[in-house]
Design a protein that fits this description.
single chain, about 675 residues, alpha+beta, Rossmann fold, D-amino Acid Aminotransferase, Chain A, domain 1, Dna Ligase, domain 1, 39 strands, about 30% helix, about 35% strand
Length: about 675
């Protein structure tokens, strides 16, 4: 077994590998760019070596820099994580020449499966069902259009060396194919250094289901069930679960056996994932094989009790698998929610900045990868992360900052546990998708397991605008806010020392108003009367009496309350005359005023928002790739105006209406913040 391994990666996956290596008694070496000098993976590792400037193309994917770090540290093996060099055969070859073990598959398997065109041909030869498409490389946009027409729209434009949703576009017509081809090539070149493209038929109403395989160097191979990854946005997975609510045992077995056969056909040895598209009749088609650890591997670990990182290390050390297919059992249900640094209220655009608050829900202390499912009780909470409170979210890397996972004996319980954990996850300082994840957990289609990869596009066609809570829950939140306000007011009078009988000073009658953040007007108003006792309070909200209990102290950012016996985890921030309360994806401004204050406040004028209709504002922090128009140019609705790159993704900014450009205030290479002006219109 190895004494020291180097982790050629960053963020949460580097931290994840360090945890298992530490448990196995193996020392770890982290590498870091200038942007990651204070990163969590650097703090956790036994050693850390600087490898260059922030851009990945100048640090994390420069093979020579990683090889220098290996020589400096004396590491005997390298775990690549996912992304970066994890599927680069040249890196595996360089390690082999240096006599350093690669904690991943052989170079030949990476080459065969890492190239999506080659992998499809091999899959066909191995008897694996594949999606119709053009297997040759595409030279230019005109050829992409011609081939797309031959296959029949819609088609998927994909980078041959792509992964993680990068370098992928769906084309529904010739214009989509032409524009998507160039954008995908650019993304693939920037992310992988390889801009080769291919095209395949896009299967409508598909589910994305993948099989986890594990093979050793002695010809043994097994599959560890499947993962449902159909909740996607822009081809990027958002929510995953294991097992799939859609598969039956016969389909699972067929997919698993084909996956192992494919792995053995290329001499695979390590953990890997075979991805499939599955239609409504459970017909499945090979999509690609990822020759690395998947982002969503924790849900497989939670239902099997197998530590995949440990198995990868043992396989790389030459050990045979310690289990057979008959030893694999699937227990309970696991859900993973990816926490991204992106603003769901701004079409999920990337967000960067300092994490002024980062407090994940409490993890199940007794759980660790490699323990049996359900070991710690009825519910397991796990959070794989690579950040900490006070740390920076950089524009240079992927926006995912954590993977929150829950396990429970059945799917409904696992979803409920996830909903509660999301309510308890506190993140401030950046835009993030926690509200959207909460909305998914409550969505009837998701809870029923009725979903395809088009779930987000179909259920949120106009983007995410928050969550509308039922009236009964809003009444409960109003009651909690009134009770919390009373506690805060009593404390304030005690501090000021105004009178001895503080409770009489505070009073019992209040007007509670609930307003969704960003709304122009607040329409939900409740007259509340509080009758307090030692255990809590009974709050009369209109015609309903709500019993409120809970231990909340003014200043606490999380309130554990119960309303009529229903547990409520409320994220709380103080605002003028009340609280900002976030719960189950809803973001509410809740004011609590005396009847007279409420009467006077209703007479206050409303401040009008500034007119930005004649400005093109930068919707996210990013780098201007190009400006597509000039001053004095007339533009049409939908015309491309500029391209801004953020977190390795190119974003095309288009005209909302006809107009004439009066002034261009930014140029290619400029680094912009949110709402910086790019250009003005007449």
């Amino acid at each position: 077994m190895f004494d020291k391994i180097l982790i050629a990666n960053r963020g949460e996956i580097a931290c994840r590998v360090i945890k298992t290596a530490r448990r196995m008694g193996i020392r770890t070496v982290a590498v870091y760019s200038d942007a990651d000098a204070n990163a969590l993976h650097v703090r956790m590792a036994d050693e850390a070596i600087h490898i260059g400037p922030p851009p990945a193309a100048e640090s994390y994917i420069v093979i020579d820099r990683i090889m220098d770090a290996i020589r400096e540290s004396g590491a005997q093996a390298v775990h690549p994580g996912y992304g970066f060099l994890s599927e680069n055969p040249l890196f595996a070859e360089a390690l082999e020449r240096a006599g350093v073990a690669f904690i991943g598959p052989p170079k030949g398997a990476i080459e065969a499966m890492g190239d999506k065109i080659t992998s499809k041909k091999i899959a066909q030869e191995a008897g694996v069902s594949t999606v119709p498409g053009h297997m040759g490389l595409i030279e230019d946009a005109d050829e992409a259009v011609r081939i797309s027409r031959e296959i029949g729209y819609p088609v998927m434009l994909k980078a041959s060396a792509g992964g993680g949703g990068k370098g992928m576009r769906i084309a529904w017509d010739d214009d989509d194919a032409r524009e998507g081809f160039q954008a995908s090539k650019n993304e693939a070149k920037a992310s992988f250094g390889d801009d080769r493209m291919f095209i395949e038929k896009f299967v409508t109403q598909p589910r994305h289901i993948e099989i986890q395989v594990l093979c050793d160097q002695h010809g043994n191979g097994i599959y560890l069930g499947e993962r449902e990854c159909s909740i996607q946005r822009r081809n990027q997975k958002v929510v995953e679960e294991a097992p799939s609510p859609f598969l039956d045992e016969a389909t699972r077995k067929a997919m698993g056996e084909q996956s192992v056969a494919l792995a053995k056909a290329v001499g695979y040895a390590s953990a890997g994932t075979v991805e499939f598209i599955v239609d409504g009749d459970r017909n499945f088609y090979f999509l690609e094989m990822n020759t690395r650890l998947q982002v969503e591997h924790p849900v497989t670990e939670l239902i099997t009790g197998v530590d995949l990182v440990e198995q990868m290390i043992r396989v790389a050390a030459g050990e045979p698998l310690s289990m057979t297919q008959g030893d694999v059992t699937l227990g309970g249900w696991a859900i993973e929610s990816r926490l991204y640094a992106e603003d769901p209220y701004r079409n999920f655009l990337p967000s960067i900045g300092r994490l002024t608050r980062y407090r994940p829900p409490e993890e199940t202390a007794a759980y660790a990868p490699g323990t049996a499912p359900g070991y710690a009780g009825d519910v397991v909470v796990r959070n794989d992360t690579g950040v900490y409170e006070g740390g920076e979210i950089s524009m240079f890397y992927d926006p995912m900052i954590a993977k929150l996972c829950t396990w429970a004996p059945d799917r409904t319980a696992a979803i409920d546990a996830m909903a509660d954990a999301l309510d308890r996850f506190e993140v401030e300082g950046i835009g993030h998708n926690l509200p959207f994840l909460s909305a998914v957990m409550a969505h009837p289609k998701f809870r029923a397991g009725d979903m395809t990869t088009a779930f987000i596009a179909e259920e949120y066609p106009d983007g995410f605008a928050g969550v509308d809570l039922p009236d009964a829950r809003l009444e409960e939140i109003a009651a909690c806010a009134a009770a919390m306000h009373r506690v805060a007011e009593i404390r304030r009078t005690r501090v000021s020392g105004r009178m001895d009988n503080h409770e009489r000073v505070v009073g019992d009658d209040w007007v509670v108003t609930l307003c969704w953040q960003g709304a122009e007007a607040c329409e939900l108003r409740h007259r509340c009367r509080i009758e307090a006792d030692r255990q809590g309070a009974t709050v009369q909200v209109g015609d309903r009496a709500v019993r409120v209990e809970g231990a909340w102290t003014p200043g606490d950012s999380l309130a554990d309350m119960t309303a009529d016996g229903t547990p409520l985890a409320l994220k709380v921030d103080k605002i003028t005359s009340g609280f900002r309360i976030r719960h189950a994806g809803a973001d509410l401004a809740v004011t609590v005023r005396s009847p007279r204050q409420a009467e006077l406040f209703a007479l206050m004028p409303v401040k009008e928002a500034a007119d930005t209709s004649k400005l093109l504002l930068c919707p996210m922090p990013g780098l201007v790739v190009r400006i597509d128009v000039a001053e004095g140019q007339a533009v049409e609705e939908g015309q491309a105006l500029a391209v801004v790159e953020a977190m390795k993704m190119e974003n095309v900014l288009r005209a909302e209406r006809k107009g004439t450009v009066s002034k261009v205030r930014a140029g290619a290479g400029d680094s912009l913040a949110v709402d910086d002006v790019i250009m003005e219109f007449e």
